């Protein structure tokens, strides 16, 4: 098993170091190789995603990614900006399934924007399709409206589309993920209005025939947005298209409190994946040793689960994180009165100590 370790910029360097420490503490056999990405790679090689970094990522079973970006690169032309590295990796690795778990840890229940009783024990997984939908559909553009009440007026248009294979593969991913959880999938669509999502619903229903042990429910996206804040614990796995997933995953993230706790994964058909915290490089606190490394440590746990087939090790890390929170250790972003404030390194050390 080979892991490409790409810390990137800002706090990426600090938090990835802690995740690597945690991985090493597991006594599993894998090789980890580090490379520059983002602004760090631009400084050294003049490009945010050098060939050598891309090659390492392609050869690895999984990529552990920190974060990229800094305000000082804002004036660079778009293709040299640090953010291009992550877009390039997604494209080159063919990553089509984005996993975002929303877990509300018992000790952080008060940090949620919802009432504690609604989120206590929350553990749901949003799976967003990444390659299709209205974000990439052609044709798109601007023109003079050819018809309608405003014919002749300037207009803009995009095209929503999904091919059968794109829906099939994300549906398989969702049903398989549900098997490792509570065996329930909610497929979110807008089949009542959109042909694309009637097709989505039909194909997901077809694929479901191969997973009789998993419950499938269909829900319109407007209702799903409502249910997520009304009774989020009723969900287990949510699978949806690119745009609905973009919106619902941010909504679900806020149920859990802090961005410093949220891991993510993006997978391709070979189960090769890129694992990263949901937050960015946090230039405002970079280099101070105060960033929360738990989102990255939990991303490493997802990597063990989804790309390296080490479910047991993944659960060990997740349990260690819960224990550390139960010990009342907190980085600044999740600190509250009566708890013990620790830095990035101390938090990583505490997780390692619990693992042992
Ligand atoms: P950000 O997520 O980096 O920071 C937002 C706020 O959350 C900041 O106040 C930061 O200090 C705090 N924060 C983030 N992660 C934290 C952690 N682990 N522990 C404690 N506090 C944490 O988003 P922002 O400020 O909008 O962007 C900063 C840079 O990051 C930009 O250059 C942006 O383009 C880049 N970015 C990169 C991403 C990636 O690498 N995938 C994703 C999002 C932003
Ligand atoms: Mg978003």
TrEMBL record:
User: Which PROSITE patterns does the record match to this protein?
Assistant: IDH_IMDH
Q: What is its EC number?
A: 1.1.1.85
Which Gene Ontology molecular function entries are recorded, alphabetically?
A: 3-isopropylmalate dehydrogenase activity; magnesium ion binding; NAD binding
Q: Report which superkingdom the organism of origin falls in.
A: Bacteria
Q: Where in the cell is it found?
A: Cytoplasm
The protein's name in its UniProt record: 3-isopropylmalate dehydrogenase
Which keywords has UniProt assigned to this entry? Amino-acid biosynthesis, Branched-chain amino acid biosynthesis, Cytoplasm, Leucine biosynthesis, Magnesium, Manganese, Metal-binding, NAD, Oxidoreductase
Please provide, in alphabetical order, the Gene Ontology terms of the cellular component aspect for this entry: cytosol
Q: Which reaction does it catalyse?
A: (2R,3S)-3-isopropylmalate + NAD(+) = 4-methyl-2-oxopentanoate + CO2 + NADH
Specify the species. Answer: Caldimonas thermodepolymerans
Question: Site Important for catalysis: which residues?
Answer: 135, 190
Binding-site list for substrate:
90, 100, 128, 222
| Biological processes, Gene Ontology terms | L-leucine biosynthetic process
Q: Which SMART domains match?
A: Iso_dh (SM01329)
Q: Which cofactor does it need?
A: Mn(2+); Mg(2+)
Q: In which pathway does it act?
A: Amino-acid biosynthesis; L-leucine biosynthesis; L-leucine from 3-methyl-2-oxobutanoate: step 3/4
Residue numbers binding Mg(2+): 222, 246, 250
Q: Does the keyword Protein biosynthesis apply?
A: no
Give the co-factor note.
Answer: Binds 1 Mg(2+) or Mn(2+) ion per subunit.
């Amino acid at each position: 098993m080979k892991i490409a370790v790409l810390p990137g910029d800002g706090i990426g360097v600090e938090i990835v170091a802690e995740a690597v420490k945690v991985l090493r503490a597991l006594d599993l056999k894998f090789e980890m190789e580090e490379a520059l990405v983002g602004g760090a790679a631009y400084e050294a090689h003049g490009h945010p995603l050098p060939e050598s970094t891309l090659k390492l990522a392609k050869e690895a079973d999984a990529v552990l990614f920190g974060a990229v970006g800094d305000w000082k690169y804002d004036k660079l032309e778009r293709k040299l900006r640090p953010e291009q590295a992550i877009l390039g990796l997604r494209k080159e690795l063919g990553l089509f399934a984005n996993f975002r778990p929303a877990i509300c840890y018992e000790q952080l229940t008060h940090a949620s924007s919802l009432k504690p009783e609604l989120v206590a024990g929350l553990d749901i997984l949003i799976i967003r399709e990444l390659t299709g939908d209205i974000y990439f559909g052609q044709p798109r553009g601007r023109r003079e409206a050819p018809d309608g009440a405003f014919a002749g007026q300037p207009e803009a248009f995009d095209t929503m589309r999904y091919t059968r294979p794109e829906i099939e593969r994300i549906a398989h991913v969702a049903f398989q993920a549900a098997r490792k959880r509570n065996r329930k999938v909610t497929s979110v669509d807008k089949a009542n209005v959109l042909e694309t999502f009637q097709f989505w619903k039909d194909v997901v229903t077809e694929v479901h025939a191969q997973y009789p042990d998993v419950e499938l429910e269909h829900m319109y996206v407007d209702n799903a947005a409502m249910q997520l804040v009304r009774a989020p614990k009723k969900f287990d796995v949510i699978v949806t298209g690119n745009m609905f997933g973009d919106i619902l995953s941010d909504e679900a993230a806020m149920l859990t409190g802090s961005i410093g706790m949220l891991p993510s994964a993006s997978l391709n058909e070979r189960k090769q994946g890129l694992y990263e915290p949901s937050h960015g490089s946090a230039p405002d606190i970079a280099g101070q040793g105060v960033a929360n490394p738990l989102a990255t440590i939990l991303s490493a746990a997802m990597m063990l689960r989804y790309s390296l087939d080490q479910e047991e090790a993944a659960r060990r890390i997740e349990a260690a994180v819960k224990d550390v929170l139960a010990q009342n250790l907190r980085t600044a972003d999740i600190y509250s009165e009566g708890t013990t404030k620790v830095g990035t390194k101390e938090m990583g050390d505490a997780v390692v100590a619990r693992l042992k």
